[in-house]
Amino acid sequence: MEKQQLALIIPAAGSGERLGGDVPKPYLKIAGKTILELSLLKFKQVPGLGEVIVSTSKNFMAQTEVLLNKIFPELKTYVVEGGKERQDSIRNALNKISGKTGLVAVHDAVRPFVAVVDIEKCVDEAARWGGAVLATRAKDTIKVSGPDLEIVQTPNRKNLWQAQTPQIFWAALIREAYDNAEKYNIYGSDDSSLVEQVGGKVVLVEGSDKNFKITYPLDLKIAEYLAKSGEL
Ligand code: CTP
Ligand code: MG
User: Fold this and answer.
1) N or C: which end of the chain has fewer CB within 10 A?
2) Tens digits of residue pLDDT in 148-157
3) How far is the CA of 86 from the centre of ligand 2 (A)?
4) Could you tell me which CATH number the domain at 6-134+164-228 has?
5) Which ligand has the nearest atom to the CA of 24?
6) Is residue 12 lining ligand 1, measured as CB closer than 6 Å?
7) Domain range summary for the chain, segments of one domain joined by +
8) What is the pTM of this model?
Protein backbone atom coordinates (compact mmCIF):
# COMPACT_ATOMS: atom_id res chain seq x y z
CA MET A 1 0.00 0.00 0.00
CA GLU A 2 1.25 3.47 -0.84
CA LYS A 3 2.31 5.37 2.29
CA GLN A 4 -0.18 8.11 3.08
CA GLN A 5 0.80 11.47 4.46
CA LEU A 6 0.38 11.56 8.23
CA ALA A 7 -0.73 14.58 10.25
CA LEU A 8 -0.01 14.68 13.98
CA ILE A 9 -2.28 16.41 16.49
CA ILE A 10 -0.91 16.91 20.00
CA PRO A 11 -3.36 18.14 22.64
CA ALA A 12 -1.30 20.10 25.20
CA ALA A 13 -3.86 22.57 26.52
CA GLY A 14 -4.82 20.88 29.80
CA SER A 15 -4.36 22.48 33.18
CA GLY A 16 -2.95 19.36 34.86
CA GLU A 17 -5.21 19.46 37.89
CA ARG A 18 -4.37 15.96 39.09
CA LEU A 19 -0.64 16.66 38.96
CA GLY A 20 -0.88 20.09 40.55
CA GLY A 21 1.86 22.75 40.34
CA ASP A 22 2.13 26.04 38.44
CA VAL A 23 3.45 24.92 35.07
CA PRO A 24 1.13 22.77 32.89
CA LYS A 25 2.47 19.19 32.50
CA PRO A 26 3.62 19.36 28.85
CA TYR A 27 5.94 22.27 29.74
CA LEU A 28 7.66 20.62 32.72
CA LYS A 29 11.19 19.50 31.97
CA ILE A 30 12.60 16.01 32.38
CA ALA A 31 16.12 15.16 31.25
CA GLY A 32 16.58 18.80 30.23
CA LYS A 33 13.71 18.93 27.73
CA THR A 34 10.02 19.72 28.08
CA ILE A 35 7.72 16.69 28.08
CA LEU A 36 6.06 18.10 24.94
CA GLU A 37 9.42 18.24 23.13
CA LEU A 38 10.22 14.65 24.11
CA SER A 39 6.88 13.47 22.70
CA LEU A 40 7.37 15.44 19.47
CA LEU A 41 10.87 13.99 19.01
CA LYS A 42 9.37 10.48 18.95
CA PHE A 43 7.11 11.38 16.02
CA LYS A 44 9.97 13.08 14.17
CA GLN A 45 11.32 9.55 13.63
CA VAL A 46 8.11 8.31 11.97
CA PRO A 47 8.24 8.10 8.14
CA GLY A 48 5.52 9.98 6.27
CA LEU A 49 4.94 12.74 8.82
CA GLY A 50 3.74 15.76 6.85
CA GLU A 51 2.24 18.24 9.31
CA VAL A 52 2.07 18.83 13.05
CA ILE A 53 -0.56 20.75 15.00
CA VAL A 54 -0.28 21.45 18.73
CA SER A 55 -3.25 22.67 20.72
CA THR A 56 -2.25 24.68 23.74
CA SER A 57 -3.32 27.45 26.08
CA LYS A 58 -2.91 31.10 25.08
CA ASN A 59 0.08 31.75 27.34
CA PHE A 60 2.09 28.94 25.77
CA MET A 61 1.35 29.52 22.09
CA ALA A 62 4.46 31.61 21.30
CA GLN A 63 6.82 29.22 23.08
CA THR A 64 5.25 26.26 21.28
CA GLU A 65 5.68 27.91 17.88
CA VAL A 66 9.40 28.35 18.56
CA LEU A 67 9.66 24.69 19.60
CA LEU A 68 7.86 23.41 16.48
CA ASN A 69 10.07 25.51 14.19
CA LYS A 70 13.14 24.12 15.92
CA ILE A 71 12.12 20.45 15.73
CA PHE A 72 10.37 20.42 12.34
CA PRO A 73 11.94 23.19 10.23
CA GLU A 74 10.97 21.31 7.05
CA LEU A 75 7.31 20.58 7.92
CA LYS A 76 4.09 22.53 7.98
CA THR A 77 3.33 23.20 11.65
CA TYR A 78 0.57 25.09 13.45
CA VAL A 79 -0.23 26.08 17.00
CA VAL A 80 -3.92 26.50 17.84
CA GLU A 81 -5.66 27.53 21.01
CA GLY A 82 -7.08 24.67 23.07
CA GLY A 83 -10.64 24.36 24.32
CA LYS A 84 -12.45 23.52 27.52
CA GLU A 85 -12.20 19.72 27.13
CA ARG A 86 -9.48 17.66 25.44
CA GLN A 87 -11.97 16.92 22.65
CA ASP A 88 -12.46 20.65 22.03
CA SER A 89 -8.69 21.12 21.79
CA ILE A 90 -8.49 18.38 19.16
CA ARG A 91 -11.47 19.78 17.26
CA ASN A 92 -9.64 23.11 16.88
CA ALA A 93 -6.55 21.31 15.60
CA LEU A 94 -8.49 19.14 13.12
CA ASN A 95 -9.74 22.28 11.37
CA LYS A 96 -6.14 23.06 10.32
CA ILE A 97 -5.37 19.79 8.59
CA SER A 98 -4.86 19.98 4.84
CA GLY A 99 -6.85 17.96 2.32
CA LYS A 100 -3.68 16.12 1.22
CA THR A 101 -3.46 14.28 4.52
CA GLY A 102 -4.50 10.62 4.48
CA LEU A 103 -4.05 9.71 8.14
CA VAL A 104 -4.38 11.67 11.37
CA ALA A 105 -2.63 10.63 14.58
CA VAL A 106 -3.66 12.05 17.95
CA HIS A 107 -1.09 11.73 20.73
CA ASP A 108 -1.19 13.15 24.25
CA ALA A 109 1.63 15.60 24.91
CA VAL A 110 2.23 13.81 28.19
CA ARG A 111 3.17 10.34 26.88
CA PRO A 112 6.86 10.88 26.04
CA PHE A 113 7.89 7.21 26.42
CA VAL A 114 5.93 5.90 23.42
CA ALA A 115 8.06 3.54 21.30
CA VAL A 116 8.58 4.60 17.67
CA VAL A 117 8.00 1.00 16.48
CA ASP A 118 4.61 1.03 18.21
CA ILE A 119 3.66 4.27 16.46
CA GLU A 120 4.64 2.67 13.15
CA LYS A 121 2.53 -0.42 13.90
CA CYS A 122 -0.46 1.84 14.59
CA VAL A 123 0.10 3.72 11.33
CA ASP A 124 0.09 0.46 9.36
CA GLU A 125 -3.02 -0.93 11.08
CA ALA A 126 -4.91 2.36 10.76
CA ALA A 127 -4.09 2.59 7.05
CA ARG A 128 -5.46 -0.92 6.63
CA TRP A 129 -8.65 -0.79 8.74
CA GLY A 130 -9.62 2.85 9.31
CA GLY A 131 -8.42 3.26 12.86
CA ALA A 132 -5.88 1.86 15.32
CA VAL A 133 -5.35 2.50 19.00
CA LEU A 134 -2.29 1.65 21.04
CA ALA A 135 -3.39 -0.19 24.19
CA THR A 136 -2.33 -2.56 26.95
CA ARG A 137 -4.21 -5.50 28.43
CA ALA A 138 -5.99 -4.64 31.67
CA LYS A 139 -3.68 -5.63 34.52
CA ASP A 140 -6.23 -5.43 37.32
CA THR A 141 -9.72 -6.87 37.37
CA ILE A 142 -12.11 -4.05 36.44
CA LYS A 143 -15.38 -3.57 38.33
CA VAL A 144 -18.45 -1.65 37.21
CA SER A 145 -19.99 0.31 40.08
CA GLY A 146 -23.60 1.20 40.75
CA PRO A 147 -25.12 3.51 43.35
CA ASP A 148 -23.48 3.37 46.80
CA LEU A 149 -20.36 1.80 45.24
CA GLU A 150 -22.06 -1.56 44.96
CA ILE A 151 -20.38 -3.75 42.32
CA VAL A 152 -22.86 -4.45 39.54
CA GLN A 153 -20.62 -6.22 37.07
CA THR A 154 -17.20 -7.80 36.64
CA PRO A 155 -16.43 -8.00 32.91
CA ASN A 156 -14.05 -10.74 31.81
CA ARG A 157 -10.56 -9.29 32.08
CA LYS A 158 -9.47 -11.12 28.92
CA ASN A 159 -11.53 -8.69 26.83
CA LEU A 160 -10.52 -5.52 28.66
CA TRP A 161 -7.86 -3.15 27.40
CA GLN A 162 -6.54 0.22 28.51
CA ALA A 163 -6.55 2.62 25.60
CA GLN A 164 -3.53 4.87 25.18
CA THR A 165 -2.42 7.17 22.41
CA PRO A 166 -1.48 7.40 19.61
CA GLN A 167 -4.91 6.81 18.14
CA ILE A 168 -4.64 6.98 14.36
CA PHE A 169 -7.44 7.19 11.77
CA TRP A 170 -8.16 7.84 8.13
CA ALA A 171 -8.48 11.61 7.97
CA ALA A 172 -11.97 11.47 6.44
CA LEU A 173 -13.14 9.14 9.21
CA ILE A 174 -11.93 11.23 12.16
CA ARG A 175 -13.40 14.33 10.50
CA GLU A 176 -16.76 12.57 10.16
CA ALA A 177 -16.54 11.42 13.80
CA TYR A 178 -15.83 14.92 15.11
CA ASP A 179 -18.57 16.45 12.95
CA ASN A 180 -21.00 13.88 14.32
CA ALA A 181 -19.91 14.52 17.92
CA GLU A 182 -20.37 18.25 17.42
CA LYS A 183 -23.78 17.81 15.84
CA TYR A 184 -25.13 15.59 18.63
CA ASN A 185 -23.08 17.18 21.44
CA ILE A 186 -21.32 13.90 22.28
CA TYR A 187 -18.23 13.94 24.50
CA GLY A 188 -16.07 10.81 24.60
CA SER A 189 -13.07 10.14 26.82
CA ASP A 190 -10.98 9.27 23.77
CA ASP A 191 -10.99 9.84 19.99
CA SER A 192 -11.70 6.24 19.12
CA SER A 193 -15.05 6.30 20.95
CA LEU A 194 -16.20 9.08 18.59
CA VAL A 195 -15.08 7.09 15.55
CA GLU A 196 -16.83 3.98 16.91
CA GLN A 197 -20.05 6.04 17.15
CA VAL A 198 -20.07 6.59 13.38
CA GLY A 199 -19.42 2.91 12.67
CA GLY A 200 -15.70 3.21 11.90
CA LYS A 201 -13.60 0.10 12.33
CA VAL A 202 -10.87 0.61 14.91
CA VAL A 203 -8.40 -2.09 15.95
CA LEU A 204 -6.23 -2.45 19.04
CA VAL A 205 -2.45 -2.59 18.79
CA GLU A 206 -0.78 -4.08 21.86
CA GLY A 207 1.79 -1.66 23.23
CA SER A 208 3.63 -1.27 26.50
CA ASP A 209 3.01 0.06 30.01
CA LYS A 210 5.96 2.36 29.44
CA ASN A 211 3.65 4.53 27.34
CA PHE A 212 1.82 5.67 30.48
CA LYS A 213 0.20 9.10 30.67
CA ILE A 214 1.90 11.44 33.15
CA THR A 215 -1.15 12.18 35.27
CA TYR A 216 -0.36 12.06 39.02
CA PRO A 217 2.73 13.15 41.00
CA LEU A 218 3.87 9.49 41.17
CA ASP A 219 3.83 9.33 37.34
CA LEU A 220 6.17 12.31 37.16
CA LYS A 221 8.58 10.61 39.59
CA ILE A 222 8.51 7.44 37.48
CA ALA A 223 9.08 9.52 34.33
CA GLU A 224 12.13 11.22 35.88
CA TYR A 225 13.49 7.84 36.97
CA LEU A 226 12.98 6.28 33.51
CA ALA A 227 14.58 9.28 31.81
CA LYS A 228 17.63 8.97 34.07
CA SER A 229 17.84 5.26 33.26
CA GLY A 230 18.08 6.03 29.53
CA GLU A 231 14.58 4.91 28.59
CA LEU A 232 13.78 7.89 26.37
N1 CTP B 1 -5.71 18.46 27.07
C2 CTP B 1 -6.02 19.47 26.15
N3 CTP B 1 -7.10 20.28 26.36
C4 CTP B 1 -7.89 20.11 27.45
C5 CTP B 1 -7.60 19.08 28.38
C6 CTP B 1 -6.50 18.26 28.15
O7 CTP B 1 -5.30 19.63 25.15
N8 CTP B 1 -8.92 20.92 27.62
C9 CTP B 1 -4.50 17.63 26.86
C10 CTP B 1 -3.52 17.65 28.04
O11 CTP B 1 -2.65 18.79 27.94
C12 CTP B 1 -2.78 16.33 27.89
C13 CTP B 1 -3.80 15.42 27.21
O14 CTP B 1 -4.86 16.27 26.74
O15 CTP B 1 -1.65 16.44 27.06
C16 CTP B 1 -4.32 14.36 28.16
O17 CTP B 1 -5.11 14.94 29.17
P18 CTP B 1 -4.90 14.81 30.75
O19 CTP B 1 -3.80 13.85 31.06
O20 CTP B 1 -6.22 14.64 31.37
O21 CTP B 1 -4.27 16.27 31.10
P22 CTP B 1 -4.95 17.45 31.89
O23 CTP B 1 -6.36 17.61 31.47
O24 CTP B 1 -4.03 18.61 31.76
O25 CTP B 1 -4.86 16.92 33.40
P26 CTP B 1 -6.06 16.85 34.49
O27 CTP B 1 -7.15 16.03 33.84
O28 CTP B 1 -5.43 16.20 35.67
O29 CTP B 1 -6.48 18.28 34.74
MG1 MG C 1 -7.81 16.02 31.77
Assistant:
1) N
2) 999 999 999 9
3) 7
4) 3.90.550.10
5) 1
6) yes
7) 6-134+164-228
8) 0.97
